[in-house]
Design a protein that fits this description.
12 helices; alpha/beta; 12% strand; 226 residues; 6 strands
Length: 226
């Protein structure tokens, strides 16, 4: 009698994380943009949520209040006026640093890879997070959801794509393109995208769904049979 063969899940060797709303709470930063535009913060948030709900680019929010708004140029203007975009330890989600540290202690290669500016990359490095790799769209010259971004991520991971877990809050920019590139994915449900966006196909294909990064190390350990 022939026995049914069970597929053994491939062991995870690397875990990479998106940055905004996965590791960093961007509430304060978006609030400063509302101030810069001269609109009430709750009004900015309402339009921001509406843009996300209809599947638009978050940058469309700025266009709603100021048509022709050039985000790159306005970042430079803010910096020149002493109001540069910034974040610090206080803006990290409380579960971020402990999760990174535990995964690294498990012997996994841990990295950050997100659509971030060169300035944000400098800040991330200064935070001295327990990671092996920090990659940004500015630094790599390619941004999500371009699959070339995830190809670079796999190169940095140093293992096959199916052994890499990518953790993000956005089904459109993180999860779906990572899956298309052959990576395993974990969806963290927080931030505006995590609560508003819907894509059942991409969501079902996730290896893990978590409400907190504190859940992740145990799930990875169980998956790897450790």
């Amino acid at each position: 009698m022939q026995r049914e063969r069970r597929e053994v899940p491939m062991r995870l060797e690397a875990v990479f994380f998106d940055v905004g709303e996965t590791l960093v709470d961007e509430t304060r930063e978006y609030g400063t943009w509302a101030d810069w535009l001269g609109v009430p913060r709750h009004t900015f948030s309402a339009v921001f949520g509406a843009v996300i709900a209809r599947g638009g680019d978050y940058r469309d929010t700025f266009q709603h209040f100021r048509p022709g708004f050039d985000l790159h140029a306005e970042r430079e203007r803010r910096a020149q006026e002493g109001q540069a975009e910034t974040f610090g330890e206080e803006n990290l989600y409380p579960d971020a640093r402990p999760c990174l540290a535990e995964l690294r202690e498990m012997g996994l290669r841990v990295g950050l890879a997100g659509n971030q500016t060169a300035r944000a990359e400098t800040i991330l490095r200064a935070l001295d997070l327990p990671v092996d790799v920090i990659g940004t769209s500015d630094g790599w010259g390619v941004e999500k959801p371009d699959t070339s971004f995830f190809d670079r991520l796999v190169t940095e991971a140093g293992c096959p794509a199916e052994s890499v877990l990518y953790v993000g809050d956005r089904l459109d920019n993180d999860i779906r393109p990572a899956q298309k590139s052959g990576l395993r994915t974990a969806l963290v449900r927080r931030g505006p995208w995590g609560h508003i966006l819907r894509d059942e196909t991409a969501a079902r294909a996730c290896l893990f769904h978590v409400d907190s990064l504190a859940e992740l190390p145990a799930l990875v350990r169980k998956h790897n049979g450790d």
